[in-house]
From TrEMBL:
PANTHER family: SULFUR CARRIER PROTEIN THIS (PTHR34472:SF1). CDD domains: Ubl_ThiS (cd00565). It comes from Fusobacterium mortiferum. Signal peptide: none annotated. This is Sulfur carrier protein ThiS. InterPro entries: Beta-grasp_dom_sf, Mopterin_synth/thiamin_S_b, Thi_S, ThiS/MoaD-like. It comes from the Bacteria.
Amino acid sequence: MNIILNGEKYEISKDNITVEELLNELSVKWNIDLSGAVVLVNDEIVKKNNWKTEKIAEDYHLEVLSFVSGG
């Protein structure tokens, strides 16, 4: 299944994936903690308590924003 992730085409290995499952996959791939991320699906913010139930479908547009402290 293909989506647009942070403005880039991205292929997901399985269909019927939730936001939480995708974030877990990305956390491992990017080696970053995304537990405090902000997630937008088709320009709508998905609240963290909905990550387990919010499904991602073909051609959805997602933005995953993670804030990093430092200077």
